């Protein structure tokens, strides 16, 4: 028994210096920023943003810590913002995944005198209301509407919106914008696909079988797009649908080249990671800040411009 | 046998010696000892690794206290139920469902907030009751029964919120609840005056606008203390508490001496549902919204806290005080790792390792103390 | 084979006549009659499947009989629950199911009958009282409990049985039904339990002692009932039957039975 205690204490003796060697790294000479996202650990899309943060930190000589609630619970995210504020960083970059939930935490950070920028989810209005310096992102509803307009032009009348993150209000906005552009009520055109590829595959399959008159598909990201692409390849219905997806991945690029996917809405996430770090650094050092919000999207990636995008997908695009 | 009445003086003197020993022994054999020791270890660890990061400044402290407090609420329910020999895996889903039971009637049907909260509590108690009845009647493992409830409740939360509200996040509860008694009860901040005084005295920091860095103790923390205290007293000092130990330790033996085991277990399922609803109500009142994904995986956090606190997975042994310290350990570790600035990709690895260490440390301490074989 | 009792004049504490119990098509008790008087140890002997445990469970109110009569102190009774039997003074100590090993002695002692103290509308368990009583009652039977707060799991098997018996006695049992209390015990532990059974008897309680072991039975019993296939093979007082005969009755019958089976029912 005594030896086990000794072993545990030894383990700690080893662990402490390891943790300590990490801790000072977080407090290097340069400014320290914290980036708080709402994405659960399983969401690979955020890898591009993590890479952008790394690049931006290296180029500006600052430190950026990436934080997220492991299960994607926004109430937990509020605690992480509070925690970040308690460490007195030089700036906080956060998404506004749920305005009501995050409001108090973000306002508290701002009241503490910490510069806050908002990115990705949320609207410019919400950002302004919170007192953030600026918002960098893609307006979700407008992006959905843009996609809907393209679909309408291509003759879509009946659609399915494959939502893999139904608990996020922004995801519903995307479907809503698309539906409004088509002039079709959203109703049960939106399906909760979950994040599991097999489930997405089967749920979309079931929907398309049951609704044979469907001619438009909107997926909200690689999590819902990739299994859907696979499904269409398997059934051979590669050109039956006008298929638009949010975001990019290697599979989606291939889908665009093969003509299965008409276009991908690119909100250019790299900029959502890179720009706030660079801008906050300049703000901190020289007190300069652009006067307007920045829309990083929607940009549409089609067969015509896929070449460059494809090379960098999953890393910087 | 005849000596039983004869050797009174000898017995008395030996009695005194034994009593002294028993105080020391009972102190050492308490199930929460390991968790207390683990908590001290964790604090020492972060005192070293997170020094100067703001973790021990007023707002930093309030941050992990709040997280630990939230967890204490559900860990207390989980601990009582585990001591009673059952599990509830539907706690996390219950949090999401209870939140919706408050938000949807309030925002979409104009029900006064107090009634919505009452409705949520009644609904949750009913679900807890059903969980309990199914477990008791079918004699299936509660693990399986409540795993089913986990899916059913989460699914209903999504389905019903889409049905009634056409969205999975119902916001705007604050418009109906601000300044109400319910909001004060579940999301108020206590001792504001005290914190203003602390700030003026320079004990805690102030914000640039003159407000103290921490405005008060959140209601959720007070709820945590209250629920843990009541749970502890009920468990150790009442007849019902004795029945909880008996039902979890050996249900047949308990039944043989007339303990109403079924009633005890059903009640405990209702207690966990009640605790989950307190958690949910505090959250909805604080954030003003309910969402279908609230509380995901919280059931495991509650069980982990109870186990760190010395509850046996097999039932019949454990304590609420232990679960309280278990929740403290979990909350401190969860937030403390962020304070140390450890890379995010490794967060869950660190979390798991620290919890494992705390559990091992606590079980070693407990074995040494109780002389368990 | 005449069934007799040793104290025919007194009213027995418990008497059953022609008790019948079936579970579906299986007949577990096919008309069992027996009685126990105050200050008497009745040993119930029989092999596995003889119907011993069904009989105990029927006596203690767990099962309801399908036929026959049940008298307590001469009055006919029907028990709906084990609680009813307990309230009538019939306490059953089950072999493994008497104690919760993880709970303290005091908590076990008062399990199901916790002493409470009132503070206004609130009721609290009186732990001080529970511990004092547990300690005293254990000392009365010669077991020095170091700490009534210690877990029952730390006691020996014999001590556990004694705690269970002491508990039943403390709560005013008139009849104790002991289900194989010695079957899992060593020699010293067995003698501790047997001594205690004798002490309880001498205080005027009736005891029904269920066992496989004829020698244990003969050491404490006043009369002996042998069960086989749901029927009694007879009841004998200690003066009527020697230990050898009793042994033969249990064992011999079985041999006869198997012989009879072998010879196709010719014997």
UniProtKB/TrEMBL annotation, chain B:
Record-linked Pfam families: BPD_transp_2
Function: Part of the binding-protein-dependent transport system for D-xylose. Probably responsible for the translocation of the substrate across the membrane.
GO CC, one annotated term: plasma membrane
Superkingdom of origin organism: Bacteria
Protein name (record): Xylose transport system permease protein XylH
Species in which this protein is naturally found: Mesorhizobium denitrificans
InterPro entries: ABC_transp_permease
Location, primary (coarse class): membrane
Keywords, in A-Z order: Cell inner membrane, Cell membrane, Membrane, Sugar transport, Transmembrane, Transmembrane helix, Transport
Intracellular or extracellular location(s): Cell membrane
Automatic annotation (TrEMBL), chain C:
ABC transporter domain sequence ranges: 14-254
InterPro entries: AAA+_ATPase, ABC_carbohydrate_import_ATPase, ABC_transporter-like_ATP-bd, ABC_transporter-like_CS, P-loop_NTPase
Gene3D superfamilies to which the protein is assigned, alphabetical: P-loop containing nucleotide triphosphate hydrolases (3.40.50.300)
One GO molecular-function entry: ATP binding
Pfam families to which the protein is assigned, alphabetical: ABC_tran
Keywords recorded for this protein, A-Z: ATP-binding, Nucleotide-binding
Record family assignment: Belongs to the ABC transporter superfamily.
Record protein name field: Sugar ABC transporter ATP-binding protein
Species annotation: Mesorhizobium denitrificans
């Amino acid at each position: 028994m005594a030896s086990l205690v000794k072993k545990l204490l030894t383990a700690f003796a080893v662990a402490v210096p390891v943790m300590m060697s990490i801790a000072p790294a977080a407090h290097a000479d340069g400014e320290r920023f914290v980036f708080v996202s709402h994405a659960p650990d399983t969401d690979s899309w955020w890898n591009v943003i993590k890479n952008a943060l790394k690049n931006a930190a290296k180029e500006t000589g600052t430190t950026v810590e990436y934080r997220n609630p492991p299960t994607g619970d926004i109430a937990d995210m509020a605690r992480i913002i509070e925690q970040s504020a308690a460490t007195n960083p030089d700036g906080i970059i956060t998404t506004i995944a749920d305005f009501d939930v995050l409001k108090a935490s973000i306002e508290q950070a701002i009241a503490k005198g910490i510069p806050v920028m908002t990115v990705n989810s949320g609207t410019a209005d919400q950002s302004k209301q919170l007192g953030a310096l600026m918002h960098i992102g893609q307006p979700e509803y407008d992006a959905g509407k843009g996609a809907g307009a393209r679909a309408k032009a291509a003759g879509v009348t009946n659609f399915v919106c494959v939502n893999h993150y139904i608990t996020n209000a922004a995801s519903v906005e995307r479907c809503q914008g698309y539906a409004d552009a088509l002039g079709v009520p959203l109703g049960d055109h939106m399906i909760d696909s979950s994040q599991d590829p097999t489930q997405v595959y089967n749920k979309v399959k079931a929907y398309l079988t049951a609704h044979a008159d469907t001619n438009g598909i909107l997926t909200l990201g690689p999590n819902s797009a990739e299994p859907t692409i696979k499904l269409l390849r398997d059934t051979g219905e590669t050109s039956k649908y006008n298929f638009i997806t949010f975001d990019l991945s290697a599979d989606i690029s291939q889908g665009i080249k093969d003509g299965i996917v008409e276009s991908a809405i690119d909100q250019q996430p790299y900029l959502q990671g890179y720009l706030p770090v660079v801008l906050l650094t300049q703000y901190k050092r020289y007190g300069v800040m652009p006067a307007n919000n920045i829309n990083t999207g929607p940009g549409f990636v089609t067969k015509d411009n896929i070449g460059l995008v494809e090379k960098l997908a999953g890393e910087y695009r | 046998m005849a000596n039983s009445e004869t050797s009174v003086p000898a017995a008395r003197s030996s009695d005194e010696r034994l009593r002294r020993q028993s105080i020391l022994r009972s102190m050492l054999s308490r199930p929460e000892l390991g968790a207390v020791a683990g908590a001290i270890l964790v604090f020492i660890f972060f005192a070293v690794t997170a020094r100067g990061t703001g973790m021990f400044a007023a707002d930093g402290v309030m941050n992990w206290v709040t997280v630990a407090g939230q967890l204490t609420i559900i860990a207390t329910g989980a601990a009582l139920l585990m001591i009673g020999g059952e599990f509830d895996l539907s706690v996390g889903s219950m949090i999401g469902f209870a939140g919706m039971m408050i938000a949807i009637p309030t925002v979409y049907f104009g029900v006064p907030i107090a009634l919505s909260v009452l409705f949520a509590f009644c609904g949750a108690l009913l679900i807890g009751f059903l969980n309990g009845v199914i477990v008791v009647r079918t004699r299936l493992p509660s693990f399986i029964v409540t795993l089913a409830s986990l899916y059913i409740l989460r699914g209903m939360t999504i389905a019903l919120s889409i049905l009634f509200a056409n969205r999975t996040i119902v916001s705007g509860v604050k418009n109906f609840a601000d300044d109400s008694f319910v909001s004060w009860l579940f999301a108020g901040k206590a001792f504001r005056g005290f914190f203003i005084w602390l700030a003026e005295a320079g004990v805690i920091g102030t914000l640039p606008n003159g407000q103290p860095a921490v405005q008060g103790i959140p209601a959720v923390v007070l709820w945590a203390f209250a629920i843990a205290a009541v749970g502890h007293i009920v468990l150790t000092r009442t007849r019902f508490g004795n029945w909880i130990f008996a039902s979890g330790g050996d249900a047949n033996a308990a039944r043989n001496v007339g303990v109403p085991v079924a009633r005890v277990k059903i009640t405990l399922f209702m207690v966990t549902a009640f605790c989950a609803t307190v958690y949910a109500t505090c959250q909805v009142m604080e954030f003003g919204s309910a969402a279908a994904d609230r509380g995901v995986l919280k059931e495991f956090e509650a069980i982990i806290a109870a186990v760190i606190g010395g509850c046996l997975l097999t039932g019949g042994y454990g304590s609420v005080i232990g679960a309280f310290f278990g929740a403290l350990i979990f909350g401190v570790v969860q937030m403390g790792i962020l304070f140390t600035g450890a890379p995010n990709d490794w967060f869950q690895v660190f979390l798991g390792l620290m919890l494992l260490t705390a559990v091992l440390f606590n079980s070693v301490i407990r074995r040494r103390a109780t002389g368990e074989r | 084979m005449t069934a007799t009792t040793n104290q025919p004049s007194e009213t027995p504490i418990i008497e059953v006549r022609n008790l019948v119990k079936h579970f579906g098509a299986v007949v577990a008790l096919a008309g069992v009659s027996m009685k126990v008087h105050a200050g008497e140890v009745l040993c119930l002997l029989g092999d596995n499947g003889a119907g011993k445990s069904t009989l105990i469970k029927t006596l203690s109110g767990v099962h309801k009989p399908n036929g026959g009569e049940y008298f307590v102190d001469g009055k006919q009774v029907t028990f709906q629950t084990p609680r009813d039997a307990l309230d009538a003074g019939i306490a059953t100590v089950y072999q493994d199911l008497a104690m919760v090993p993880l709970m303290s002695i005091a908590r076990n002692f008062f399990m199901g009958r916790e002493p409470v103290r009132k503070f206004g509308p609130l009721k609290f368990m009186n732990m001080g009282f529970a511990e004092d009583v547990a300690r005293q009652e254990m000392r009365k039977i010669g077991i020095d409990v170091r700490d009534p707060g210690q877990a029952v799991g730390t006691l020996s098997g014999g001590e556990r049985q004694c705690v269970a018996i002491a508990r039943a006695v403390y709560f005013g049992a008139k009849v104790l039904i002991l289900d194989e209390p010695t079957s899992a015990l060593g020699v010293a532990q067995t003698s501790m339990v047997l001594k205690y059974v004798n002490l309880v008897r001498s205080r005027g309680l009736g005891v029904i002692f269920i066992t496989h072991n004829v020698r244990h039975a003969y050491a404490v019993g006043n009369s002996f009932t042998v069960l086989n296939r749901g029927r009694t093979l007879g009841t004998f007082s200690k003066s009527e039957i020697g230990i050898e005969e009793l042994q033969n009755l249990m064992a011999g019958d079985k041999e006869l039975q198997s012989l009879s089976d072998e010879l196709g029912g010719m014997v």
